[in-house]
Amino acid sequence: MKNILVTGLLLSAIGTAVADDSPWSGNGQLGFTSTSGNSDTTTLTAGLAGKHEVNQWINTLSLDVLRADSDGVDTADRYILEGKTGYKFNEANYVFFNTRYENDSFTAFDYTWTNAVGWGHKFYESDDKKLITEVGVGHKIAAYDIDRNEDSGVVFTAKVDYMHKFSDNVSFGDVLRLESTSDNTFTQNDAGLTFKVSDKVGVKLSHQWRHNTDVPIGIKSTDTLVAASLVYDF
Q1: Which residues are bridge partners to 230 per DSSP?
Q2: Domain at 2-233: CATH architecture
Q3: 54 vs 56: CA distance, rounded Å
């Protein structure tokens, strides 16, 4: 419980600093549930994403956190850090370098670290709709939680980022990600409906689906997460 509250406070502080002191735009998300009685459970989902685009350069940073415990025992503990730098040839096409680090105590992998270079294409992007695709190739390290052995090798990456705004107050977004190596293919899909309650604040209902094709015996290959979060745009 203490770790969950500290994580939430840190994310709130970082989001406030970014909003006040930098030209970056983006959003912060925070969801929290707690039950007590026959079962005491707490769950925290939090995220912070920022984007800075000037002249030919695109820079993005993000942090995602999931923490949960049941009756004092941790049941989920994951954080993901990701950064990207891209250079635009024109309004539709760009090249990029992306790095993504994931640490998870409750999956087949203790951590993964993916670095890739690639090409991105904007089919369209506006305040009302967006469709952006990326493909890349690079290097991925995966450390197995069982014995801390590391597998590393060439990785092929792909990403589809879609958004459609139905009205001034309701929008739908979906991000599909794929990382494929000779040992495993990782797929993650994040879909969500956001309902705006003011210019800066909204409520997001989201569903996350994560799948690994090759996992050790006794480990489930698919994880899902359903969450409701408060969203603040900056």
Answers
A1: 30, 203
A2: Beta Barrel (2.40)
A3: 6
